[in-house]
Amino acid sequence: MFKVESKINGALGRAGVLHTSHGEIKTPAFATVGTKATVKALTPEQVRDTGSQVVLANTFHLFLQPGERVVKMAGGLNRFMNWPGPTITDSGGFQVFSLGAAFSSEKSGGTKRKISKIAKVPADENIILDDGQQGGGGLAIIDEDGVSFRDPSSGAPHRLTPERSIEIQRSLGADVIFSFDECTSPFAPHEYQKEAMERTHRWAERCLVNHRNKGESKIRRITREILKIEEEKEINPTQQLFGIVQGGRFEDLRKDSARVIGKMDFDGFGIGGSFGKADIDEALRWVNIILPEEKPRHLLGIGEPVDLILGVENGADLFDCVIPTRMGRNGGLFTKNGKINITNSKFKKDFSRIEDDCRCYTCQNYTMAYLAHLFKAREMLAATLASIHNLYFINNLMSEIRKSILEGYFPKFKDEFLKKYKS
Ligand SMILES: [Zn+2]
Q1: For residue 276, what pLDDT is reported?
Q2: How far apart are CA 183 and CA 9, in angstroms?
Q3: How far is the CA of 50 from the centre of ligand 1 (A)?
Q4: CA-CA distance, 393 to 200, in Å (whole number)?
Q5: Cystine design at 165: which of 74, 109, 180, 329 (Cβ 3.0–4.6 Å)?
Q6: What is the C-alpha to C-alpha distance for residues 180 and 267, in angstroms, rounded to an integer?
Q7: What is the pLDDT of residue 277?
Q8: Is 50 exceeded by the pLDDT of residue 117?
Q9: Domain spans of the chain?
């Protein structure tokens, strides 16, 4: 299903094609994030016109609302959101574990804690956070079988297990789905990272079994075969399951995780967890030198231009991130010289384009002064036009990287881009 077309000389990076039942994804590629089965402020046609090949939606959000059954009844994610191209769903793991941070920041009197921390405790004990603070029943709680958590808005209790995550993703029907993993704080100690990683490995095995059996138990399958009952029709019978490599910032754990997950029968791999800006390329090399070369690799949650270039060079094929759209909605715009903020007063009377040579719809039709005015007036079109430019910028960057790999001048492309781009 994945084919490597060309490699970067002396590096782990490559260009390839990932085939799905909703069309091919030419890699390296950036997956546009449509968290709740919509890319905020854009119609699917506008998303397509920015050069986006694939949309990634979040299992956790769709599970809470409208519920995976509604999406299944609609005929799957594609039909529900009217996006005809390839789709990806994450496993819900990251969002569930982030709940720990959300709840703990509330409890610590509004002090924002950037890093999620999930307490692991026996069910009958109080939750103790890593800073020694006593937590309450509102946190996500992890055990060997899965995670219990509360809906952040309604407070309703829920439970996610590896099997449940795969079942939900099967109902959503995306082309690429992910195994359920435990995301840890990058500052978690080695001992905890190791424990969480080993649990993630056991969960990966369970996800594979559920995916292979399509969620059907052995007894149920035999009964169905004896009674000649037809198998339930799947939304997407060619769904590809990616396993997730964890291990935090520790070299031994990352390598161990790549070896264990790499040997399992996954269609591709996700590389999860947090990375520091300085160590992203090194951590990727540890992992990608071990993962099987013939399968695709998705670096989860990364989308800054410089990180994309380093990510590709070090063997990642797919990326996703909310940055282009979230930053756009706040007036942040990508340019080849770095980021600008259109709300800055210096753009008020600037009747030039964001970038003269950009071929996006926004740059073809609007000036910076007009965009600055839309943001100042809090007009909805501001978010649309800014998101269009940013997505086009990132998609165009990915296709330029791809071209440079296919035609053998990636190092030159990288040097020239990094020389200009001030992050
Ligand atoms: Zn543009």
Answers
A1: 63
A2: 33
A3: 9
A4: 35
A5: 180
A6: 15
A7: 63
A8: no
A9: 2-89+160-320, 328-420
